Amino acid sequence: MLISLQIRAKYLALMSCVALLSACAMQRPVVQVPQHLFDDQSFAIAKQTPDAAAIFAPTAEMKQFIAKEILTQIRSSSHQRALFNALYTKAQLKLEYDSSYTRNAAETFSARSGNCLSLVIMTAAIAKEMGMDISYQSVITPETWSRNGALYFNVGHVNIVLGKRHFDDRNHLDKNHQMTIDFYPPEEIAGQRTLELEEKTIVAMYFNNRAAESMSAGDLNQAYHWARAALTADPSYAAGYNTLGVVYLRHKNDELAYNALDAALRLDPSSTVAMSNIIQAMEQTNRLADAKAMQEKLASRQPFPPFHFFKLGMKAMEDQDYQTAKRWFERELDRAPDYHEFHFWLGMAHLKLGDMKAAEQHLTAAKSNSTSQEVYSMYSSKLDRFHAAQSKFQ
């Protein structure tokens, strides 16, 4: 059984000018914790110590919620349905999407908001407290990107499966006794492939997200410790090596950056994110022939990098060529129909061209697709000013 919720969020994947959380391979190699890639002495002690146990730890408030809002439904409903009804259908938590940072279970429950990974973690924590069997899935979706300043993020998607494992006489998993909770609209995940993830990978994803978020905030010391924790949790998680490599690039430790990114590509040779980053590391370590070969390989797989058309559109806006800007923004939206920033700037291009109806449509779409309360408030304010300006001419 699949239950789908339209709550926007995902997990991040990081890259110096791009980011990655790669989908996990079905049969991943056994990899040891890469102690040789860590450089603790070059970084200050972490302000926040990564703690894997704290990610799923339930609070007293969460336990009380289970007793009052979930267990009271068990007589008339399954454990899975009772949990889903209490958390989402009845909306006692009034959950909202917020990508400001990846929260653990307790923080998500307290804030009543989080991204997709946060919501999966919170749901898992409650299901565990109820004694339910759970599993996690990576959903193979079209490549999606976001950005924060100079950092670009490849955004992946996970969901959670609830229920006791029931087996038939052939020892096959009976899917009819499980409930999949997904935080995407059903039309966006229909027919998509999924890969089961181990919980250690979910832990690594959490730490990797925190590393990306710390780096985006300019805190390389904290980013290093989160990235280190991700690889300690799951040494076979390729995205963690990419993130560690980007930390080293920004910390000017180019040789270790190269080694970490090389490890990422060994685990995930198809990663265009790691390819893009290792080119910079190759150039910085005088591996110029290797950098050229990798650039050619990357160009053959990704002729138009993320935000390529958006950047052309922004250049056209600077040149006051709004018709050309509109075409570039439309082309970028063809690749990412829901990304708020593309809608906003397309709206601005329409505004400059005097098409008020189209401008309002895309400004509204930017607001609707906001990824945090801060961004939502910003677009709300811009829409209010737009409507106020319009009213003066009516």
UniProtKB/TrEMBL annotation:
Entry protein name: Tetratricopeptide repeat protein
SMART domains attached to this UniProt entry: TPR
GO biological process: receptor-mediated virion attachment to host cell
GO-annotated cellular components: cell outer membrane
Renumbered ranges of TPR repeats: 238-271
Matches recorded under InterPro entries: TPR-like_helical_dom_sf, TPR_rpt, Ycf3
Pfam families: TPR_16 (PF13432)
Source organism of this protein record: Undibacterium nitidum
Source domain of life: Bacteria
Keyword Signal applies: yes
The keyword Repeat is annotated on this UniProt entry: yes
Keywords tagged on the record: Repeat, Signal, TPR repeat
Signal peptide interval: 1-27
Matches recorded under Gene3D superfamilies: Tetratricopeptide repeat domain
